[in-house]
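Lab notebook, design round three. We kept the backbone fixed and only want residue identities now. Task for the bench partner: fill in a sequence for the structure below.
Input structure tokens:
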């Protein structure tokens, strides 16, 4: 059985080519003030509608073919796989947090150093009173925690004025 997309494409190309020839003949007949000009213009309009229909038929046939035969579109980048990986990590971290297990440090316990080579103190994530520090809230240990004042999408709510939001509000007029 022939490929229906290719068949529709060949048919569309022929119809479009004939329509262009017909439009050119109608234009030349009009310049020559021939009696054939008016019927050619009418048939050119009809042919243009048919050519548009033929091109749309190719597009629809291609879409149906892809859907029925399981043509899979791959993402242009690895962004989707990275998101899946981050989601897996967050789920694992949540499961570990629920189980009360401490998540191992990805750096292997190596001490954190400042750009000048001096060692930075490690943050425990709690203040002396036992309350969570802002650093713990921001870092979140990969458990899906978001910075304070942010919603699920990661954007600041309308009540919190970020510098971008303030700039947008002052320059909106």
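Proposed sequence:
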């Amino acid at each position: 059985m022939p490929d229906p997309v290719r068949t529709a494409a060949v048919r569309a190309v022929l119809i479009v080519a004939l329509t262009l020839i017909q439009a050119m003949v109608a234009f030349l007949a009009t310049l020559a003030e021939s009696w054939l000009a008016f019927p050619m213009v009418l048939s050119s309009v009809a042919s243009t509608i048919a050519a548009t229909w033929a091109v749309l038929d190719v597009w629809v046939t291609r879409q149906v073919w892809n859907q029925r035969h399981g043509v899979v579109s791959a993402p242009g980048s690895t962004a989707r796989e990275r998101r899946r990986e981050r989601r897996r990590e967050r789920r694992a971290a949540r499961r570990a947090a629920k189980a009360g297990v401490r998540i191992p440090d990805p750096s292997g316990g190596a001490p954190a150093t400042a750009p000048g080579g001096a060692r930075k103190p490690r943050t425990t994530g709690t203040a002396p009173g036992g309350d969570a520090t802002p650093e713990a809230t921001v870092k979140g240990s990969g458990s899906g925690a978001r910075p304070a004042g942010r919603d699920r999408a990661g954007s600041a709510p309308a009540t919190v004025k970020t510098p971008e939001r303030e700039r947008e509000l002052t320059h909106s007029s």
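Keep this in mind before ordering anything: Residues 4-68 form one domain.
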